[in-house]
Design goal:
There is one protein chain. This protein is of the alpha/beta class. It contains 25 helices and twelve strands. The chain has helices at 12-21, 32-36, 40-43, 51-64, 68-74, 80-91, 109-118, 135-146, 159-169, 171-185, 196-217, 224-245, 278-286, 306-315, 334-341, 363-372, 395-417, 433-439, 449-459, 479-501, 504-546, 554-585, 590-593, 597-617, 636-646, and strands at residues 94-95, 120-122, 128-131, 154-157, 265-270, 295-301, 321-325, 349-352, 358-359, 379-388, 429-432, 463-473. The strands form two sheets. Strands 7-6-5-8-11-10-12-9 form an eight-stranded mixed sheet. It has a four-stranded mixed sheet with strand order 1-4-3-2, with helices on both faces. Helix 12 (224-245) packs across helix 17 and helix 20 (479-501) crosses helix 21. It starts with 11 loop residues before the first helix and ends in a 13-residue tail after the last helix.
């Protein structure tokens, strides 16, 4: 620790460049009183770093509403340990490196949460370790001045050292917290507690198929009830899409330019076998237009993924980026990895990105504008729109792009404007940290954690908004990769329906009848459509091919009418929604997409039935989607070329090299 204060190469040219970039006072002549009137967090650096650098950091910190030490850290002008040594000397308290032996007692999960939120940890000898920086350090200084006796008990460390200490010594409770907290605290809202209902869902689907076959062989009035029930769900799903196609987009607030009012932001990025896209990911995240001092990026990897870890070590070695390894406890799923990273997130807003994402540079500012708009105090999540980037890779990616356009640009905005629960996308969703904590974060046992979390937010009284900011994604370009991904999505939808549908009266009490119906129509209708589409189509085709007197009975006419109505309405709604979505997204090739919708629906059906049987055989299996395989791109080369020009902070070279 003594070495951290030594060997600081503080060149005057670097200080001048830093001051000029951030509009500080002229670096040529800094008055002596300005250089000595420094906030407590950097006052101990006087004489160790150039005065004009410290003054520039102080002035930028005042504009951002943060500590000056955070500015120096973001600029690589000082290391965390150097700042720690200087602050401890200034406050006359002891430095705690937290590099010794393991603590005597392991805190329970709730205490571990409190430790990470507060940055305070009690040692076995009764001393208190504070991991503080910036404005928190100023509050500690004021407390020490008011209560001098605390000098003997208080020790100072860095947030980085505290996080490393927790990861090193508390791996087991962290893993238990990430994997089982929701199951233990809210068992009725976790897919881990699903039992016989999984088998009943499979049995119900098979019964529906059997009834459809029976209706084909011998139409009877007795069969109208079950067929009518299924038809109503499918018609509700279609009508929802038709209504969404007629909606006019609502105006959105402009992204804020006042950096002082922006909150601290944490981005969680789970990665597994993603080494090939790591360079692109880091460039995309570094190009986000947000003050570096207020942005934290947590990259979460699995313990058996050395290749991705090596790629991150090469490309993510920059201020504000931290690499975490998810504990090897419980299911190895994306939501478990997100839960493992959440205790280390320091931001009031928490955003989620996937490895292949290319978000709009203004996305974080737009999310902040939505959270801060009048009347939005109960907005718990802001979902950006997702678009497919590698549209021209294959006919599958083209259909996928059209499907995404209909879903994110047409359907979800309707649900958000009507204040209805909606299934989130798996990425580019931005949460109030308070909302995440209240609802129990992600369910590690649900393989569509995004859809489930969207419903739990609604049940907790939180709204979700859709913003007109786009994240480009890579779609699977082969049938096998597409089928595995869609199977996982459908299986997660089934888990979500079973979890939140096991207490219908309570669910209605929490989200209302309209919320209940939209939840049923969107998730249930999508699943029933995938499972029953080939059954309805085959039944009608066979009946029409048989002809004869069978169609003359009232039961036969009613069943035929329901089948035709469901098919025509379903295809009509899909076509209409697809047209609107593709026009909004400015996708070409509409007449290549529409004729292939029936074939695409058959693929959806294959994924639906595969998901149904996986629900029994492998409910938590996470079938990985490989990325970095795209052969074409609509926007990525342009975005990567333009982003650094729009955001000067995309790649900052260190102003000063700490020794």
């Amino acid at each position: 620790m003594n070495a951290v204060a030594d060997g600081v190469d503080a060149s005057g040219d670097a200080a001048a460049t830093f001051a000029a970039r951030h509009g500080a006072s002229s670096p040529e002549a800094v008055p002596h009183e300005a250089a000595t009137d420094l906030p407590v967090e950097i006052a101990g650096l006087a004489g160790r770093l150039p005065d004009r650098l410290l003054v520039a950091a102080r002035e930028r910190a005042a504009r951002l509403g943060i500590g000056a030490d955070e500015v120096l850290l973001a600029e690589s002008a000082a290391t965390p340990d150097l700042l720690l040594a200087a602050a401890a000397t200034r406050l006359d308290i002891t430095v705690e490196p937290l590099d010794g032996t393991a603590p005597v007692a392991v805190p329970p999960p709730e205490a571990l949460r409190g430790l990470m939120r507060s940055g305070l940890m009690r040692q076995p000898d009764g001393s208190i370790v504070a991991a503080a920086r910036g404005l928190r350090l100023r509050r500690i200084a004021a407390t020490l001045e008011a209560t001098p006796m605390l000098h003997a008990r208080l020790r100072l460390t860095t947030p980085e050292r505290l996080a490393q200490h927790v990861r090193r010594h508390f791996t087991e409770p962290l893993g238990q917290l990430a994997a089982f907290a929701l199951r233990d605290e809210k068992p009725d809202q976790s897919a881990a507690t699903l039992g016989i209902s999984r088998y009943l869902m499979v049995l119900g689907a098979l019964i529906c198929v059997a009834l459809a076959g029976l209706a084909l062989v011998s139409p009877a009035l007795l069969l109208i009830g079950p067929v009518l029930l299924v038809s109503l769900v499918l018609l509700g799903w279609s009508c929802l899409r038709l209504v969404a196609s007629t909606m006019t987009p609502e105006p959105e607030p402009l992204p804020p330019r006042d950096d002082a009012g922006l909150p601290a932001y944490s981005l969680l990025v789970p990665l597994y076998r993603e080494a090939r896209v790591v360079p692109q990911l880091i460039e995309a995240l570094a190009a986000l237009d947000y003050p570096r001092e207020k942005l934290q990026v947590l990259l979460v990897i699995e313990p058996n993924d050395g290749e991705t870890a090596a790629a991150l070590a090469r490309h993510a070695n920059r201020p504000g980026f931290d690499i975490l390894t998810a504990p090897d406890t419980g299911p190895r799923t994306k939501p478990k990895a997100l839960n493992a990273a959440l205790p280390f997130a320091r931001g009031a807003i928490v955003g989620i990105y996937d490895a292949e994402d290319m978000p709009d540079p203004q996305q974080l500012r737009r999310a902040c504008a939505a959270f801060a708009a009048p009347g939005n105090r109960r907005v718990g999540c802001v979902q950006a729109r997702l678009a497919i980037d590698n549209v021209a890779d294959s006919w599958i990616t083209r259909q996928f792009a059209a499907e995404y356009a209909a879903h994110f640009d047409v359907v979800l905005p309707l649900l958000a404007s009507a204040r209805l629960p909606l299934p989130l996308g798996g990425t580019s969703n931005h949460f109030r940290r308070a909302a995440l904590d209240r609802v129990g974060a992600w369910d590690p046992f649900n393989v569509a954690e995004d859809a489930d979390l969207g419903v739990r937010l609604a049940r907790g009284g939180w709204r979700t908004l859709i913003i007109a900011s786009t994240t480009d994604e890579e779609a699977p370009r082969t049938a096998g990769a597409w089928l595995r991904q869609r199977t996982r999505w459908y299986k997660g939808w089934m888990q979500t329906l079973l979890v939140h549908g096991r207490a219908p009266r309570r669910l209605i009490g929490e989200i209302g009848w309209s919320g209940m119906l939209s939840f049923l129509f969107l998730l249930g209708g999508g699943l029933v459509s995938a499972l029953m589409h080939p059954v309805f189509a085959l039944a009608l085709a066979l009946r029409w091919s048989f002809g004869g007197d069978v169609g003359a009975s009232p039961a036969s006419l009613l069943l035929d009418g329901l089948g035709i109505l469901v098919l025509l309405t379903g295809y009509g709604a899909t076509v209409f929604c697809t047209i609107i979505g593709m026009r909004h997204r400015r996708l070409t090739g509409l007449w290549r997409v529409l004729p292939l919708i029936p074939l695409y629906w058959l693929m959806l059906s294959a994924a639906g039935w595969r998901a149904l049987f996986q629900l029994i055989a492998a409910p938590q299996r996470w079938e990985k989607t490989e990325h970095g395989l795209a052969r074409t791109s609509r926007r990525r080369p342009v975005r990567l070329r333009l982003r650094p020009a729009r955001n000067g902070a995309a790649r900052r070279r260190p102003m000063i090299k700490p020794g």
